[in-house]
From TrEMBL:
SMART domains: HATPase_c, HisKA, PAC, PAS. It comes from Abyssibacter profundi. GO terms for cellular component: plasma membrane. Coiled coil: none annotated. This is histidine kinase. Its EC number is 2.7.13.3. It catalyses: ATP + protein L-histidine = ADP + protein N-phospho-L-histidine.
Length: 507
């Protein structure tokens, strides 16, 4: 409104003056009631002139206690000694405003982290007549920032001290930004040599030509992570087999701002796996050779045995009446020996074939045990034996071999029992860590604990053929079957008498 308009309305000036007074009063009341900020006015020398609710809450002083005192008392002894309060006033006087963050002191002596803005107040002639000082308590923010800083420092120290892994950061284009001690030990570069260089220098020429480094970054950018194994290069040109994980880093807007790259040297593992694979192939070749040898040998050995057996029978038929008692007995020995030899050759051939099946399948051991008892029904009936089978699990294995295993164990349990004792066989299972343990217990003659290792060897017998028939191959079969199933087998004395065989099979 112009001065001419004001003269035509003589009551306008008093109304404007009253409005200004009201606004100033309202403004002062608003400041006084602000609780989150300490808002005070100080004179040119730093003495406090006004005090609001926020100042009382943050600093602990009541208005009557603090008015007229110097604002320096809110600063630490070190800051006062260094003249910090006066420097801030001088800065505000010269520049119009001064901002600072730091520790301040409450009435009770406790500290708080403050954000302070001091603004100079001027009169109509531009002279400084005082200051407004606005303080905000940022102690909680400072605590969080300090906690985050310490956490980052610990993480950085941890990363730096890790020697088994090369841990580094890449920018969005793949240039190295950080380098830890593990990277220096693994790749041979110092931080000064490698920071700022592109990480593709660790790759073989063929990988770089195929754009492998860029493809890994693109995969990490798209999927958040990329993993790879392959040959990498050290500074000295030597190779190592690396397992690499590249992870994309994002900002608050989900934009990719860089990558972490973690590399582990797996050269020893790779070398061991290669050696193991070569040994496995060699073993497979040898097993094939052994099976072929066993087959050919059994055929070649069986042929002359059949000839001996045929001529022995021919002699018996043609000259039996002309032979005396000794010759007849000797001829019987020859026939029995030929039969035993033939069975041993068959058992040896069967032993060479164990473990050849390479595809395991679910096998219900209770059904296998029932089939074995059916196969041995004649022997069970002859000895009036009792065979009790508890609940047995289903396992992964080769059905034919597991049937042969139980047939040998149950057959022995029935066979190695004195004639004056009724055979009793128990079969049950117990759960073990990561496996099933199967037990076959008898009430037979038992086994000398010092002989338990011998019984699993090929053609080993602890009793004479006159006492108990057999070739001594059954338990050797059992051990090879269990070993091919990655299990274990053993024997221990039964609680009362007899033996308790046990074997484990993975779940």
């Amino acid at each position: 409104m112009s001065g001419r308009d004001m003269t035509s309305c003589p009551d306008s000036a008093p109304r404007q003056f009253n409005a200004g007074v009201d606004n100033a009063r309202l403004y002062q009341q608003m400041i006084a009631e602000v609780a989150d900020f300490a808002i005070i006015r100080i004179d040119p020398n730093g003495k406090i002139q006004t005090w609001n609710l926020g100042a009382e809450r943050i600093k602990g002083y009541g208005e009557s206690e603090i008015l007229g005192l110097n604002f320096r008392r809110f600063y630490t002894d070190a800051d006062r000694a260094a003249g910090k309060p006066d420097r801030l006033l001088d800065q505000a006087r010269r520049e119009g405003r001064a901002h600072d963050e730091g520790w301040r002191v409450r009435k009770d002596g406790s500290g708080f982290w403050a954000s302070v803005v001091i603004t100079a107040l001027h009169d109509d002639q531009g002279q400084t007549v005082g200051y407004t000082k606005v303080t905000r308590d940022l102690t909680e923010r400072k605590r969080v920032e300090e906690s985050l800083r310490r956490s980052e420092e610990r993480f950085q120290r941890m990363v730096e001290e890790v020697a088994d892994y090369a841990i580094l950061m890449l920018d969005t284009s793949g240039h190295v930004e950080t380098w830890n001690s593990g990277a220096r030990l693994l790749k041979g570069y110092t931080a000064d040599e490698i920071i700022g260089q592109h990480f593709s220098r660790f790759y073989l020429d063929s990988d770089r030509a195929a754009d492998k480094p860029a493809r890994l970054l693109a995969e990490a950018r798209e999927h958040g992570r990329a993993q790879d194994e392959g040959w990498r290069l050290r500074k000295n040109g030597t190779r190592f087999w690396a397992s690499v994980t590249i992870t994309a880093l994002h900002d608050q807007y989900a934009e990719v701002v860089g990558f972490t790259k973690v590399t582990r040297d797996l050269t020893e593992r790779m070398t061991a796996e290669t050696r193991l694979k070569a040994l496995a192939e060699k073993l497979q070749f040898k097993n094939t050779e052994l099976e072929q040898f066993a087959y050919i040998t059994s055929h070649d050995l069986q042929e002359p045995l059949r000839t001996v057996a045929s001529y022995s029978k021919l002699m018996q038929r043609r000259y039996g009446t002309q032979l005396d008692a000794d010759a007849t007995e000797w001829l019987g020995y020859v026939t029995d020996a030929v039969g035993r030899m033939s069975r041993m050759i068959d058992d040896l051939l069967q032993h060479s074939r164990i473990g050849r099946d390479s595809e395991p399948e679910p096998v219900n051991l209770r059904q296998v045990a029932a089939a074995v008892c059916h196969d041995l029904q004649a022997l069970i009936a002859k000895r009036s034996a009792r065979v009790h089978t508890s609940e047995l699990p289903t396992v992964q294995g080769m059905p034919t071999e597991l049937r042969l295993l139980l047939q040998n164990l149950v057959g022995n349990a029935l066979k190695f029992v004195p004639a004056d004792r009724t055979p009793e066989v128990e079969i049950w299972a117990e759960k073990c860590p990561g496996a099933w343990c199967i037990y076959v217990q008898d009430n037979g003659i038992g086994i000398d604990p010092e002989q338990t290792d011998r019984i699993f060897r090929i053609f080993q017998r602890l009793n004479t053929r006159e006492e108990f028939e057999g070739t001594g191959m059954g338990l050797a079969h059992c051990q090879k079957i269990i070993e091919s199933h990655q299990g274990t087998i053993g024997v221990e004395p039964a609680p009362e008498n007899g033996s308790r065989f046990y074997f484990t099979l993975p779940e």
